[in-house]
Amino acid sequence: MSHERFGLDTALLVVDVQNDFCPGGALAVAGGDAIIPVINAWIPRFATVLASRDWHPPDSVHFTSWPPHCVAGTVGAQFRAGLDTGRFLLILDKGTGDVDDGYSAFEATSEDLESWLRSRGIEQLYVCGLATDYCVLRTVLDALRLGFAVTVIRDGIAAVEVNPGDGQRALEAMAAAGALVTGDSRTCCNICNRGQSYLL
Ligand SMILES: [Zn+2]
């Protein structure tokens, strides 16, 4: 992969790489832990690295749609072992209310993500994490709607796939809304090819 570093206007957002979304967890995503080395390889390239986490109350309307997962303070809600959390500058807790799905990192209640980014002059986000078809999707669509440039790290995401093909459809929806999608981490990083999207 390229070792170019990104400028100060660009941040990495790592979405919900938590135990309950990884194999063995309450709402496991196939390959949810396979993305961790990919994410760890991208982290050093960014001056600003943020992470979101599902941080649900024990009783939530959210659990009428999903098995209980990522209950605040539990092991299931912890970041997956092996994820390089040492450079997380900000952790965004979302889904913290009992009537709150909190799919998007922009719905975090621990911090106003939009204001936080704007106050630091961050205009571009690279997004990776779990799961492609829910929290990554909603985060990316919100970021684009708010005017941020977004690149999705193609091999740094994995999908729940409640319906087969949901992951691919989510990628197509993000690209259609204006997101760029990288190839794998060994191919072009977009720095030299802004405006091109990959693999779609
Ligand atoms: Zn959740």
Globally, the shape reads: globular
Radius of gyration: 15 Å
How many structurally independent domains? 1
The second-level CATH architecture is 3-Layer(aba) Sandwich
Termini Cα gap: 20 Å
How are the strands of the largest sheet arranged? 3-2-1-4-5-6
Bound molecule kinds, no repeats:
zinc ion
Query: What is the chain-wise order of helices and strands?
Result: EHEEHEHEHE
Query: Pairing-aware structural class of the strands and helices?
Result: alpha/beta
At the fold tier of CATH, the topology name is Rossmann fold
The mean pLDDT is 91
Q: Please give the largest β-sheet.
A: 6 strands, parallel
Number of helical segments? 4
According to DSSP, the number of beta strands is 6
The first-level CATH class is given as Alpha Beta
pLDDT below 50 for ≥5 consecutive residues: which ranges? 184-200
- Portion of residues in beta strands equals 15-25%
Give the helix level as a range of percent.
10-25%
CATH superfamily: Isochorismatase-like
